[in-house]
Amino acid sequence: MINTGFEPTLDHYACMVNLFGRSGHMDKAVDLISSMSQEPNSLIWTTVLSVCVMKGDIKHGEMSARCLIELDPFTAVPYIMLSNLYAACGRWKDVASIRSLMKAKHVKKFAAYSWIEIDNEVHREYNQKADGTRLNVLIDGKECEELHVGRLQQFCM
Predict the structure, then answer these.
(1) What angle do CA 91, 58, 29 make, to 5 degrees?
(2) Which Gene Ontology terms cover its molecular function (predicted)?
């Protein structure tokens, strides 16, 4: 590495970890994390875990999930992501084990949501489900359809 006098931030490291991992060089990503002057935080380990889920890399996925759980044992993200990784690889006993661990530790998964503006009015959007070329969403508790092109078309039931 060229010494420019510039100290990379954790965001810079997360970007490099993401690039290494997506390009199939997870070992280089892990080496970079090991050589960091700062202690890796949840951003770094979540980046590793998300790339592992994308690539089906159980070895590094388990390692990053373990680090995330050590940082915050009551955040559901690493448990859910590791469970999804196991499911994608057909490791159903491990999926059940992770879900049981979450229950035993009282780790709760909360529904995520976003905001969307329709006709100058802000609505909460959650529970997205892809359905062919359309996206079905619940907006303020009513099921609606969004066309992927153009303005949000409301067909609330």
Answers:
(1) 170
(2) RNA binding
pTM of structure? 0.70
CATH 1.25.40.10 placement within the chain = 10-104
Quick: pLDDT tens for 102-129. 999 999 887 666 777 777 877 666 554 4
Q: How far apart are CA 22 and CA 91, in angstroms?
A: 23
Give the span between the Cα atoms of 53 and 49, in whole angstroms.
Answer: 6
Long-range pairs of 143-150 with CB within 8 A, sequence gap ≥ 24 = none
Place of tokens 């380990």: 45
**Confidence category of residue 5, pLDDT binned at 50, 70, 90:** confident
Which superfamily does 10-104 belong to? Tetratricopeptide repeat domain (1.25.40.10)
